[in-house]
Amino acid sequence: MDFIWEIGKAAIALFIIVDPLGNIPIFMGLTENVPESKKKKVYNTAIIVGTVLLLVFAFTGTEILTIFGLSIYSFEVAGGILLLIIAIRILILGSMNEKVEYPESIGAVPIAIPLLVGPGAITTTIFNIQLYETAIPAILSVIMVMAITWVILRNSDKIYKSLGKTGSIVISRVMALLIAAIAVQYILTGITHFLVLPH
Questions:
Q1: What domains, with CATH codes, occur in the chain?
Q2: Cβ-contact 54, 125 below 8 angstroms
Q3: Contact present, 105 and 35 (Cβ < 8 Å)
Q4: Residue 3: HSE in the Cβ half-sphere, 13 Å Cα cutoff
Q5: pLDDT the model gives residue 145
């Protein structure tokens, strides 16, 4: 039961950060000029790239930090600051306002990176690896969240229509507030451990 709860906590934290529902207006804007026949390929590419990237960090994130002489907490502070900037930008502007020159590549950039898999998602994945006794909760949370995100992306047109423009904006802003709160918590946690740990 504790194991299932660990997976659930890891998945919920990652889902809030990835925020596929809040990003639906952005997805719609980015794929507005993409033919319907190519949209599925765009979203499939986004999920594959995002999943692979998160799993790479899940398996090698600690080693990558070690190579550069960084701690998980310094990465957490940096990720928290960047995530807070993103949240504030969404709250003020309503979106990331990403401009894409090549529609064929938007599945990888900017949908997979940085909209789905940004510093916050990477930080959360690495932190989940450190938090639990095994890597299984973090890995399963990545697979679960990206699977749910794939379903949401594939049905983004229907979801957007059912929510309406106002509903999509409200969800986007609420999610941005949650992201901002999580970002602040990351920063505070990182700073606290930095001050407490011996140097």
A1: 2-196 (1.20.1250)
A2: yes
A3: no
A4: 6
A5: 96
The SS3 of residue 45 is: helix
d(CA 27, CA 69): 36
- Find the Cα–Cα–Cα–Cα dihedral 11, 81, 27, 58, rounded to 10°: -40
Instruction: Measure the CA–CA gap between 59 and 61, rounded to whole angstroms.
Output: 6
Give residue-wise pLDDT tens across range 23-58. Answer: 787 787 778 778 877 888 899 999 999 999 999 988
Among residues 50, 71, 183, the alpha carbon closest in space to that of 130 is found at: 71
Q: Are 19 and 95 in contact (CB under 8 A)?
A: no
Cα–Cα distance measured from residue 108 to residue 34, given in angstroms and rounded to the nearest whole number: 14
Task: Please give the mean pLDDT across all residues of the chain.
Answer: 80
Q: What are phi and psi of 117, to 5 degrees?
A: -115, 85
Q: Which residues in the chain show pLDDT less than 70?
A: 1, 94-104, 133, 197-199
Tens digits of per-residue pLDDT, 14-26?
A: 998 888 887 787 7
Between CA 92 and CA 89 the distance in angstroms is: 5
